[in-house]
Amino acid sequence: MIGVDAGATSTRIAVHTLDGTRVGYARAGAGNPTAHGLDKAVAAVREALSAALAGHDGGQVVASLAGVAGHVPELTRELAKVWADHGVAEGPRCEGDLLIGYVAGSAEPDGALLLSGTGAAAARITGFRLDAVADALGWLLADAGSGFWIGRAAAMAVVDAFDRGLPVTALDDPADRLVPLVGRDFLGAERPDTPRAVASRVVRLAQAAPMRLATLAALVSRAAAAGDPMAVTIVEDAADRLAATLRRVHVSGPVVLAGSVLTSEGPVRAAVTARLPGVPVSTARDAAGAAAWLAARPLLAEDEAKALHGVFTGLGP
Amino acid sequence: MIGVDAGATSTRIAVHTLDGTRVGYARAGAGNPTAHGLDKAVAAVREALSAALAGHDGGQVVASLAGVAGHVPELTRELAKVWADHGVAEGPRCEGDLLIGYVAGSAEPDGALLLSGTGAAAARITGFRLDAVADALGWLLADAGSGFWIGRAAAMAVVDAFDRGLPVTALDDPADRLVPLVGRDFLGAERPDTPRAVASRVVRLAQAAPMRLATLAALVSRAAAAGDPMAVTIVEDAADRLAATLRRVHVSGPVVLAGSVLTSEGPVRAAVTARLPGVPVSTARDAAGAAAWLAARPLLAEDEAKALHGVFTGLGP
């Protein structure tokens, strides 16, 4: 059984026997063919497959499945060639990464995924098929409640506070407040002369590397956990937006939380969970293992498949 | 008298006699040395100066003043060379474009500017000097209430409406509603198959050219004037933000409204004006003429200068 999790930042491949035992695992660079080009994505998968299959006979592989962010039609054919080069008769079935994210947290055929990482999305899953998607529309106009969205809100609040004249010394508040946490993340030991110079400097640094804003989400969580009102407001807004996105697709069944913002314990996860009373909520675990489990499922009895789900997905990297 | 308005999109130069008569006017490309580089900015000013001074004796120029977006220290020296090449003994004094924007709407030494064009800013003017600035901090994290901010809010609302399942046929609503106005601006005659495909397509087009979002502000005004509730909300939010930015700097005296969002009659201008009860509000007119007036002011008696303000600034291009 080969499971592939070809994501926007890395590719992970897990090799399992039919009873769930993990016999190989490897990671390589980004495997998103839309964002990084087909050739680069295929090369990353090839590298990970060679490492994960090392010492195993490819001819023994009976099923493979790849969860891919940004699927392109040519990918299935290209991956079949890579599999053939490793002595595996049949190439992997390709599925969206949102389905695999769901399966990484649930063995139920019907339910929903709620993801908040750099981006944000919700997906309805019906019979282990991706049935509907909400959001996942990018940071410029959407991805409401994502890490980027939370981090941008925090940077805006900090810039606004200094533009309104908050003293530069606020950067050195020893408490876990949003302003010093975010301000020091940008400025380090640098201390501009005036509040307005602080605002301008943070803006210039953010403009130079906008994706950096997503990393601020962890600081928002830390400040919110310490009771900072500005951070608490951002967290509550994010949870409202994520819950609204989920409501667009969720009909019944469990909700799987995925993405760094929702899989880590903290205020955002707590605020989202509080908005889902009576809904069974679980957390996405290993996605490569989940892909291997989904490949194995048709070969197992239903009860057996359910029983082994935790073995496949709980092994981690 | 030479007045220069060296802006982020174009450079305009006006040549006036001391009684306000305009004897030359020309425009050239962008003259912002920070955004476009010193060489390009100086070249644009040189081109405009040659055209505006054509047929005049540079030796007769007694004073010059340049309003410059994004001043850099070397600029004064470089412009002095350009002036010398045109036979003008003394190069222009350089001032910020926010001061010139204010002077384009007021002959009072103390007051404030509120600007909403592509960006947004407020400035306090004291004795015809730039005393304090609020916002002007860029579209990624600030410029609250700017054309970009308004257009982005509109695009977000439209993307969100389609992601929530608004039928594709809503694009063809003949009324001045926000959704069809903005949707058709992006898609033209193109009609994707599903609401979600509409949302994705608008997102992709906006990501390809983010600055295009600023041009949507005019459509928001049109929809708000026709009573579209989504557009009215965006306009009210923008006016709240602009009024808050102004309050950070405005102490006393008139408020000059500048920038395409505030100089054109319409819902944003009306909503902002409604938030300034009892404050004398005027509108920025010709900025190159305003720069020429500010250059002429020390050479005129105070009453005379006030009386001629409208002549200098009201002539337009």
TrEMBL record, chains A, B:
InterPro entries: ATPase_BadF, ATPase_NBD, Euk-type_GlcNAc_Kinase. It comes from the Bacteria. Residues 2-291 form the ATPase BadF/BadG/BcrA/BcrD type domain. PANTHER family: N-ACETYL-D-GLUCOSAMINE KINASE. This is BadF/BadG/BcrA/BcrD ATPase family protein. It comes from Nonomuraea coxensis DSM 45129.
